[in-house]
From TrEMBL:
Residues 2-175 form the Reverse transcriptase Ty1/copia-type domain. This is Reverse transcriptase Ty1/copia-type domain-containing protein. It comes from the Eukaryota. It holds the Pfam family RVT_2. PANTHER family: GAG-POL-RELATED RETROTRANSPOSON, INTEGRASE CATALYTIC DOMAIN-CONTAINING PROTEIN.
């Protein structure tokens, strides 16, 4: 995103339809006949898979291997991450970012962009979403005249607040209060208090906050890091601090 904003290049998005069905399998795998598809005696006859299918433990891995083989054959190379690719042709360049079935394409050449889209559509069933506007729960707001890109997780945060009953809470001015201190001495000391805290989805709440922090809200990184220290044995003070972060968001 930073490169796209800095160099004012194109940013498009594509979606792979039924991505996991594209993978090949290396093993011999049988499955019980699916409901409403019965051949012969369903109690004694099973299906032998010739391709990957949703539900296999290795489905996502096999899909990645298939995609990697195909995209490398088109001249792309791995950039710094196994799911980030680039291709250069003189001064023209294009970056491809893959996240399961979501693809972002960033390039300084429209011709290269359309060529890559045609190649992907030829090898996989694709959906061209045009200019990237929403990916992984993150809304992308772009103003090319100012050379800026804004990232927002408003809808995601709204869902988090609703899940933990904080959607109508009073907004907070800060994610952490001056003087807040956390220590292991605050953790439950007896089984009764441990059982009381087990009713609260503390770890889920902190995990939800962590995703927002990593993607678009680095301003809560400090307090989320502190709350993460007590995932295994939280106390009510830690839960109150997590709710304060939600009010701030």
């Amino acid at each position: 995103m930073a490169l796209v904003a800095h160099f004012d290049i194109e940013l498009h998005q594509m979606d792979v339809k039924t991505a996991f069905l594209n993978g090949d399998i290396d093993e011999t795998i049988y499955m019980v006949q699916p409901e409403n598809f019965e051949s012969g005696d369903p109690k004694n006859m099973v299906c032998k898979l010739t391709k990957s299918i949703y539900g296999l433990k290795q489905a996502s891995r096999q899909w990645y291997h298939k995609f990697h083989q195909v995209i490398v054959s088109f001249g792309f190379e791995i950039n710094v991450d196994n799911c980030v690719y680039h291709k250069f042709s003189g001064s023209k360049h294009i970056f491809l970012v893959l996240y399961v079935d979501d693809i972002l394409l960033a390039t300084n050449d429209i011709g290269m962009l359309h060529e890559t889209k045609r190649f992907l559509s030829k090898n996989f069933e694709m959906k061209d979403l045009g200019d990237a506007s929403f990916v992984l729960g993150i809304q992308i707001q772009r103003d090319r005249s100012w050379g800026i890109i804004g990232l927002s997780q408003r809808s995601y945060i709204d869902k988090v607040l609703k899940r933990f009953g904080m959607q109508d809470s009073k907004p907070g001015d800060t994610s952490v209060t001056k003087g807040d201190k956390f220590s292991l001495n605050q953790c439950p000391k007896n089984n009764l208090k441990v059982k009381e805290m087990q009713k609260i989805l503390y770890a889920s709440a902190v995990g939800s906050l962590m995703y927002a922090q990593v993607c678009t809200r680095p301003d809560i990184a400090y307090i989320v890091g502190m709350l993460c220290r007590y995932l295994n044995n939280p106390m009510m003070d830690h839960w109150k601090a997590a709710k304060r972060v939600m009010r701030y968001l």
